[in-house]
Amino acid sequence: MSYPSPRILAAQLVVLIRIRMHMLAAVGLASVTGWELLIPIAIVLVLWPVQEWLVHKFVLHLRPRELWGRRFDPHFAKKHRDHHADPSYLPDVFLPARVIVPLIPPTLAFWWLVMPTPELALTAMIAYVGAALHYEWVHYLSHTSVTPRTEWFRRVRRNHRYHHFKNERYWHGFTVPLVDTVLGSNPKASEVETSATARTLGVEPE
Questions:
Q1: Helices (H) and strands (E) in the chain, counts
Q2: CA-to-CA distance for 106 and 64, rounded, in angstroms?
Q3: Nearest-5° angle of CA 53, CA 57, CA 63?
Q4: 122, 23 contact by CB (below 8 A)
Q5: Which residue, among 56, 104, 101, has the nearest Cα to 81 in the 3D structure?
Q6: Where are the domains of the chain?
Q7: Which of 203, 162, 205 is nearest to 60 (CA)?
Q8: Beta-strand (E) ranges in 24-171?
Q9: Which of 4-13, 22-31, 155-164, 194-203 has the lowest mean pLDDT?
């Protein structure tokens, strides 16, 4: 919690939970159905690992390019390359605050628009921000010397280290390693060539 993004996500989570509690107080707990909790949480549980994989592969690994005569190299891609260049440097493990903050309004608007009721929207928002905070926590632990106690965390840590030190073209999933298997990016490490660009992502430092 000494880093910006966990504090931002935690504060957002507290505010959303307080709003949801206020809504519950207005209608009474007895009026809440199990489906109201199950549906949005289930949607987030399915959406998050797929989004995580897609963003990691196609957004964070975006290479600089020329657009209209100017170099286009987004801050989030540069920070992710910094993370690959020195995976043990903890400040670069976390999502940049200047990326998270602008995403808050569109993310909340998305859930407000796609969910049929305000109650479902608030539950989905809470689940989504909780998933983001969980991602930050697990990613942080994976880059420390913490010894995994569960098979799930051992697999998360192992796959993530493969991504950093074996080949950056595979193992883009994270909190749900199964997504790599489903999307074809979980080969046997022994059958994968060690990449010479795992630290640079194919972009030489300026």
A1: 7, 2
A2: 25
A3: 155
A4: yes
A5: 56
A6: 4-154
A7: 203
A8: 65-67, 70-72
A9: 22-31
Q: Which residues neighbour 154 within 8 Å (Cβ) at sequence distance 6 or greater?
A: 148
The pair of structure tokens assigned to 52 is: 């995580």
Beta-bridge partner residues of 70: 67
Which amino acid would we find at residue 139? Answer: H
Residue 164: closest CA among 78, 83, 64: 83
Structure tokens given for 192: 């994968």
Strands (E), 58-117: 65-67, 70-72
CA 101 to chain centre: 14
Cross-strand bridge partners of residue 66: 71
pLDDT on residue 16? 95
Rounding to the nearest 10 degrees, give the CA dihedral for residues 114, 29, 104, 12.
-170
The pLDDT tens digits of the residues spanning 154-205 come to 999 999 999 999 999 999 999 999 999 999 999 999 999 999 999 999 987 7
